[in-house]
Fold:
Amino acid sequence: MLKYILIFLTGAWAAILANRGIAIFNDAVRPFFPEFRENRMSRLELATTTFGLSFGLVIGFGIPFSIMSPIILIHSIFLGTDIIGTFFPGKPIKEWYKDKESVIGVSLAGLVGGIYSLLILIGLAGFVKLIKMLPVNVFDALGSLGDPVIFAFAAFPALAVAFEYGFKNGLISFAIIGVAREVVARFYPSSADGIALLVGLIVLLIYAMRTKSQSSVSTMSLFGERVQNIKRSLPYIGIMGALYGVAVKIGLMMEGPQSLIAASKGLKADAIGITISRALSFIPLKGTTALASGTFVTDGFGFVATAGLLSPNIIIAAVLGAIVIMLEASSLLLFVKVFDQYPGIRNAADNIRNAMSKLLEIAILVGSMMAANKIAPGLGFFVVAGLYLLNEVAKKPLVRVAVGPIGAIIVGVLANVLAVIK
Structure:
C-alpha cells in the first residue's frame, strides 16, 4: 500500500511543479520556460513542445527499462508528469493561488499526474505477471539483459579521458582502472566494479583539474535573478526530494538504467557509485539549464537517489532527500563558479555523459542480443541486430539505447506466438 500511495503523491507533486514552472525533468524542455513566463510562448505551445520532446522517451526509453525490473525508471514517471503539468492551464505569476484558472490547473495537474503514475505502477506489475504466465519464459532472460552494464560500466571514465586528452591517456586510464578492479576482486569480489569506477573517476578528476580558466566574466550577474526564482521555491522542491528519496529507499524508483540494473540485482554499492558518477556528470547540463531558465530539475542533480540508497529507513530517506535537493538548488551559483574557474571539470562532466551514453548503447545492445538469444536461439540475434540497424536509417529513430530492450521484448512475444501456433 505504501508504494501505491507514494507513487501517486510523487507523480502528483511532480506534475504540480511542472505546471508552475518550478521544476521540469526533461533537460530539453527547461530552457523554454522563460519564453512562457515572459509571454513569448503560449501554454498550448509549451505543452505541445513538451509532448514532442518527452513522449518518445517515455515509450522508447522509460517503459522498456522499467518492464525489465521491479523498480521503475524515473523517466517513465517524470517525463509523463512534465507533459501533464504543462498541458493544464495556469498563468506564470507568483501569486497563482489568487488566480482561479491557475488554481484549477494546479489541481487537475496534480490529480492526473498522480493517476498516471499509479497506472504506470499497476500496469507494469500486471505486465510482469502476464509474462510469467506465458508458455515461453522470457522474464528470466530479460532479467539478464543488463548484465554487461554492471561489469563494463567502470570503463567509461577511461573513454571520457580519451575524449578530452587523447587515446594514449585514455588507454593509460583504462589500464589503471583494470588493475584496480583485479586487485580489489582478489579480496572483495562484490565491490570490485564499484571501486574500479571510483578509481576511474579520481583519475579523470586529476586530468580535469590541470586546466584553469582565465575568464573574468561573472556568472552571478548573468543568472542572479533566475536563481532567486528557484530559491523562492525551495520548500516545494524539498517536498519533491523527500518523496523521491523515500521512493528510492523502498525500491520503487531509480534514477538511471545503470543504477536500476545494479539495484535490482542487489548490488547496492555499485548502485551508489553509479548514482554519484551520474549526478556529477549531469551537474553542468542540469545546472546550466536551471540557471538560464529559473526552473529547477525534478530529481535534482541526482544525489537524492544516493541519499535514498544510503538511508537506513524511510524517515531518514525523506529528511535527507529534502535536504539534499534543497542544497543542490541553493548551490547553483557555487557550482557554476567552480566550472568557471576549472573549465576542465565542466568538459570532463560533458565527456562523462557522452562516455556513459556510448558504453550504455554497446552494453545494452550486447545484453539485449544475449537475452533475446536465450529466448529464441538464432532468431534473437537476428531480430535485435536487424531492428538496431533499421533504426539507424529510420526517419524518426528511437533512442539507440532503447532499441535493444524493445527488440528483446519483441522476440519474447514472437517466441510465445510461435509456441502457441505449434
In short: The chain is about 75% helix and 0% strand. Residues 100-133 form the longest helix (34 residues). The two ends are 41 Å apart (CA to CA). The beta strands are 72-73, 253-254.
